[in-house]
Specification:
With 163 residues, the chain is mainly alpha-helical. The protein has 2 domains: 95 residues, Arc Repressor Mutant, subunit A (Orthogonal Bundle); 54 residues, Arc Repressor Mutant, subunit A (Orthogonal Bundle). The protein is built from 7 helices and 2 strands; from the N terminus they run ααααββααα. A two-stranded antiparallel ribbon has the order 1-2. Strand 1 and strand 2 form a beta hairpin. Helix 1 packs across helix 3 and helix 3 crosses helix 4. The longest helix is centred in the first third of the chain and has 38 residues.
Length: 163
């Protein structure tokens, strides 16, 4: 292996050793460039999400707008799979200190689940899934009774007959 003691002796390296070192330096530079590109990609995605979901960030879950990875990708001029890979298993801290996965930005049912949870918490007598669906329709949220039941189960809330 080439071990120059001073710059004058640098020419004493064998060409194979010099090429070998240059190869590793090239790989290291490529690695650093890839890390910087990933960092820039996640920064761009986050900036776009903040612009589109400002109301959610300021006012809470009820103001979460339906948003797809494809919409973000289109705005940034990148492929949808890039957005998906860049945000997979990553978390972001909201202004009020809560840490959530990036996937929450792409889950429109979160705000609907919050409305269902509040309805059930404020109910006088237990509402059936069909009644909850009807009240949601009155608020402009159209979902099927089965979807209400699915969301209720995901929230670990019992059916009306057991509440």
């Amino acid at each position: 292996m080439c071990r120059p003691i001073s710059s004058e002796r640098a020419h004493a390296c064998r060409p194979d050793d010099k090429r070998h070192v240059q190869q590793y330096v090239g790989r290291a530079k490529l690695f650093i460039a890839n890390i910087n590109q990933r960092r820039q990609t996640i920064y761009n995605i986050t900036t776009c999400l903040v612009e589109k979901q400002r109301e959610f960030l300021e006012k809470g879950i009820r103001h979460l707008k339906p948003l797809s990875r494809a919409a973000i990708a289109n705005d940034l001029g990148i492929h949808e799979s890039t957005v998906s890979r860049a945000t997979a298993a990553k978390y972001v801290m909201l202004p009020h200190g809560e840490v959530i996965p990036y996937s929450h930005f792409f889950t429109p049912s979160l705000s609907i689940k919050d409305v269902i949870k509040e309805m059930i918490e404020k109910e006088g007598r237990p509402l059936t899934d069909a009644q909850i669906g009807e009240r949601l329709r009155e608020c402009g949220i159209v979902i099927a009774r089965r979807t209400v039941a699915k969301y209720r189960m995901q929230l670990d809330i019992l059916p009306s007959s057991l509440r």
